[in-house]
């Protein structure tokens, strides 16, 4: 009788190429069904038809540096990025005095630093309020000046990216706690508070932001006593805060309604007060649930700040339009709007990626 060969160990066999790697990804995402195959082919044809001409226009035939527009007009069929090189300071800083434009640049960097600090969990405590307070004072000092050796610059000359960041950052920053209060008030058991919050939320959400900006710019001064006025920029900021707060309230209310009833009952069983129950148990869970719609709302508000162009505030879009009025550089609107769209994309894409990472980090107990 022959002895069977002794098995000393198992040999690891690599999975087939069709089930892992790029091949599997393409089969799953691009060619998983007839409809997906058709869409993939159509998208591929679209890319082939548009990408080479765009690369030729934007890179190969483009004029990058030129003191005048003549070189751009001579190089037909190519982009004129020399226009951006010539007008980038007007686009980024608006009508701010040329020799003082380092101040709005520093203010924009401080603003971005505030956003980054707000995204770091180590600062999710009382320290964040102090950071925002210091940041607000520093930005005001840099933009207005008038003290500590800086010349005074009235806010009618502010513009460009720093102004857009100010409107968006402080609009959302002040609207966020206001919206939470409105959401809690709408779910309150006190009829008067609940009615007032419902009336405010439904009234603000029932009108477009552009109408609030018109009201704040044109109609609101008519109700002020004679000799009393509020700055146009501050009125626009208040309108943005009011508008964003109403939408944030509804998003937060959706998160509050998604909390299981057992969480409320457990908090009541522990004898917690309303504020401790809300601040320590209910609200943190609700905010974690609404991260995706909340960030989508923040992105929308960042882009909606461009609507202040209708009341004559030189935000990033209005500064871009102002750069196009130079008759010597007429005809290069496409390049300027591409430049501005890249700026908007960088900020919006960064917020989107951060929300995905934050949602994954906080998704404890919900993964399958």
CATH topology assignment of the largest domain:
MetI-like fold
Q: How many separate domains make up the residues?
A: 2
Name the CATH superfamily assignment of the largest domain.
MetI-like
* Mean pLDDT rating: 83
| Number of helical segments with 4 or more residues | 15
* Low-confidence segments: none
* Quaternary status: single chain
CATH architecture of the largest domain: Orthogonal Bundle
Number of strands: 0
From the helix content, strand content and strand pairing, which structural class follows? mainly alpha
Radius of gyration: 27 Å
Brief summary:
This protein has 368 residues and is mainly alpha-helical.
């Amino acid at each position: 009788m022959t002895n069977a060969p002794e098995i000393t160990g198992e040999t690891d066999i690599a999975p087939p190429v069709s089930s892992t790697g790029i091949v599997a990804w393409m089969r799953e995402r691009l060619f998983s069904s007839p409809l997906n195959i058709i869409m993939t082919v159509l998208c591929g044809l679209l890319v082939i038809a548009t990408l080479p001409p765009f690369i030729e226009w934007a890179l190969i035939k483009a004029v990058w540096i030129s003191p005048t527009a003549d070189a751009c007009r001579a190089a037909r069929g190519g982009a004129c990025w020399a226009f951006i090189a010539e007008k980038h300071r007007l686009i980024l800083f608006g009508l701010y005095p040329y020799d003082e434009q380092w101040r709005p640049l520093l203010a924009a960097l401080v603003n971005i630093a505030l956003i980054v600090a707000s995204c770091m969990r180590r600062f999710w405590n009382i320290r964040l309020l102090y950071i925002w307070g210091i940041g607000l004072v520093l930005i005001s000092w840099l933009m207005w000046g008038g003290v500590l050796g800086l010349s005074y610059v009235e806010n009618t000359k502010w513009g460009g990216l720093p102004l857009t960041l100010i409107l968006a950052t402080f609009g959302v920053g002040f609207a966020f706690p206001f919206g939470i209060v409105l959401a809690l008030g709408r779910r309150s058991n006190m009829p008067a508070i609940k009615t007032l919050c419902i009336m405010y939320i439904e009234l603000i959400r029932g009108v477009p932001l552009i109408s609030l900006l018109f009201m704040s710019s044109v109609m609101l001064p008519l109700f002020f006593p004679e000799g009393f006025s509020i700055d146009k920029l501050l009125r626009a900021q208040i309108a943005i805060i009011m508008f964003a707060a109403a939408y944030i309230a509804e998003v937060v209310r959706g998160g509050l309604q998604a909390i299981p009833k057992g969480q409320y009952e457990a908090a009541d069983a522990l004898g917690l007060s309303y504020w401790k129950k809300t601040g320590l148990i209910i609200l943190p869970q609700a905010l974690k649930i609404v991260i995706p719609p909340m960030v989508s709302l923040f992105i929308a508000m960042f882009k909606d700040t461009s609507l202040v162009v209708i009341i004559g505030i030189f935000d990033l879009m209005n500064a871009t339009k102002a750069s196009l009025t130079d008759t010597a550089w007429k005809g290069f609107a496409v390049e300027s709007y591409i430049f501005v769209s890249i700026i908007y994309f960088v900020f919006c894409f960064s917020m989107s990626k951060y929300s995905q990472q934050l949602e994954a980090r906080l998704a404890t107990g919900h993964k399958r």
